[in-house]
Amino acid sequence: MTARLLEGSEAIAEAMVAAGCRFFAGYPMTPFTEVLEHMARRLPEVGGVCMNAESELEAIGMAWGAAATGTPAATGSTGQGLSLMQESLAEITLARLPLVVLNMARAQGDYFQATRGGGHGDYRHIVLAPTDIPEAVELIQLAFHLAFTWRNPVLVFGDYYLAHTAQSVDVSPIDHGARDLAWALDGSSGGSGRAKLVSPLGGFKRKEQSGYNLADHYSTCADATANMIAGVKPLVETGFVDGAEVIVVAFGTPGRYVRAAVRGLRADGVPVGYVRPITLFPFPSEAVARACEGARHVAVYENNQGQMIDDVRLAVLGHAPVHFIGGLSLDSSGFGIAPDLDVQVLRARIEEVFAR
Amino acid sequence: MTEHEGINIVPTDQPPTHPATLVRDFTPDLIDVGTHHLCAGCGEPVAMRAAMEAVAELGVVQRTIGVFGIGCYTAFSNNLDVEVLQALHGRAPSLATGVKRAKPDTFVFTMQGDGDMVNEGLQEVIHAAARGENMTCIMLNNGVFGETGGHMTATTVIGQRTKNTLEGRNAADHGHPILLANILAGVDGSAYIARGAVNNAHNVALTKQMITAAFESQIAGRGFSFVEILTMCPTGWFIETGEAPDYLADNLAAVHQIGVLKDIARA
């Protein structure tokens, strides 16, 4: 396949189809709406199903049901809609099901929601944050692979820019290997004496265990989470870190502006570098720490009041002062179109930190 | 010990001389363990048995996926020899929709209570009915949150005492009961809607027929089918176990009336 000029939402939809996604459910909300529109058009063409759910609660419920049959499934919304889905997201993790969830976020205020989770219990989700459309196409396909590998929801953190800008992109399928579906439901184990049970309360059958053992199940899930955290390779982009006196950290769309600002400063002889976490969870702490080893100062840009900065501080562990150079930057609709996303603005803020 | 010629009367005023022996196990094949953890006099195991017998008799065992809500009946979700997907409280119809749409060849039923279906997740079942989802929802309606110990639900009838309506539910303070089967019968997309009960042998047989008809409706691809089953909850009703069947007839069934409310195959 050759590259095509696609709007981000369409590219994300095409990447889901390329990854084998055959079930999608959603409820319209900007800037997630166009992804739903494209899936409603595309999935029937490839034998899949797209459901216009009555609310976000049912959207994730439907995706949960489809996921339990081993069908590659996804849902999503903005952070607001994901708030409604948190109860199910927590339980789907305890039921150990693969699911891809899009957060086409408004600005970056959902970092904590994505990386800490707004649901109950001791669970974690893998979180991937693309900076542009080609990377989104890659990460969407990686998300399905990780979801099936770890049988755990994977969140893809996008935004208004990613959804509504266009870029030339190749959406060929990426081969991540076969998926194990031995656990999936299709009814066929009924009557065998060992009918399958997929439950956030565990898979214990009463005739074997005298009922549910939540202590055992939650311990099993905790082990699975620990294995996942240890097994998922943290992804990161770094640039100009050699000899950098200031390292700037940013994720998602702002990462591209920071990259350009740093490149410009370097061209003018100012020794600064940048780090862009691509996996927000597991956070690439070692890579961030390594990049910041020789730095006098670390600066963090986020389009929020400062959330990822906590993870940066935990990574740097006091070896350098960490400064916040971001802040809420919104349009009047609150969609996250940021006046701050201006290379000159960012350059000035980085220079201020450099002058300290 | 009383002597009666030809009649072996077991004395109950002293310990038995030998342990009880199992003459025959009447547990249906699809229920793993016949004894249940629910209270004595509970109607839910009877309804569960009727549903599992219908699954077996219709020959759909190897394509059945049951989607369970959260309530006392959840004790059966890990005690069946059909595949089960456990949902959150209130959310079984959306999960069942995902299962059925992703795998249309499966036979899908939900098992929920009145607190689960009518309180927590009412919009789910109404939208599923309106979409004509080709699946069957079963609602075990005892008019209380049994698992929490007897609290008012949306189907609790006027006058019924619960732990949070101690003097009995009254409309002024607590509103009116929602008659779910009646609502669903009025929704285009629903194919078969019935309300049964398990308070006597006749009603158990009738309810089994309703479940079978609902399942056959799904097998025939007619759309959404629904059976509401009135079940006894003597614990949550704060009455003697033996009084529960009559209490059901005199109170719940007087409001939630038994019968087939809609059957497009016979319309």
Total of helices of chain B: 9
Number of strands of chain A: 15
| CATH fold name of the largest domain in chain A | Rossmann fold
- State the end-to-end distance of chain A: 50 Å
- CATH topology tier name of chain B: Rossmann fold
Overall radius of gyration of chain B: 20 Å
| Overall pLDDT score of chain B | 95
CATH homologous group name of chain B:
Thiamin diphosphate (ThDP)-binding fold, Pyr/PP domains
DSSP strand content of chain B = 15-25%
What is the domain tally of chain A? 2
Question: What is the helical fraction of chain B, as a range of percent?
Answer: 25-40%
* Radius of gyration of chain A using CA atoms only: 21 Å
Walk me through this protein's architecture:
The complex is a heterodimer of chains A (356) and B (267). Chain A is of the alpha/beta class. Chain A has two domains: 166 residues, Rossmann fold (3-Layer(aba) Sandwich); 119 residues, Rossmann fold. Chain A is built from 13 helices and 15 strands. In chain A, β11, α10 and β12 form a beta-alpha-beta unit. The radius of gyration of chain A is 21 Å and the shape is globular. Chain A starts with a strand and ends with a helix. The relative contact order of chain A is 0.13. Chain B contains nine helices and nine strands. Chain B has a single domain, classed as Rossmann fold (3-Layer(aba) Sandwich). With 267 residues, chain B is of the alpha/beta class. Chain B has a seven-stranded mixed β-sheet with strand order 2-1-3-4-8-7-9, sandwiched between helices. In chain B, strands 5-6 form a two-stranded antiparallel sheet. The interface between A and B is large, with 50 and 42 residues.
